Amino acid sequence: MENFFFKGQKFTPTIDFNGETGILSIEGQSYPEHAEEIFAPVFDWLDRYLQTPNRIIILNFELSYFNTATSRRFQDLLETLEIYKSEKGGNVTINWHYREDDYDMLENGEDYIESIDLDINLVSVKHSEE
Hints:
Pfam families: SiaC. This protein is of the alpha/beta class and 130 residues long. 38% of the residues lie in helices and 32% in strands.
């Protein structure tokens, strides 16, 4: 299957979904005005990708900030993967990267752990001075 790539801009994340390896990445910041429109092609691609059962999927979140509208899209994305795991035998792992001093992002990851039946790893990343 073809890959999905969307180059992030000021208000949108970079989304890189590799159809061959099953490694899906969302990184950067996400606070677009119309998150539904930005993420619609992501869900279209994912719907096609998840037609094949028993895939191994690793989803990496590496975000510095996201808004409430994006949070809803992420919840939908995780719920879609949760259904895929239970109905089509998918092996799904989520890696939630957060900067070690970003307690809000850590809390967001913890909230997803409580709401979704998927393996979610909280990955602390050292903040480098730039």
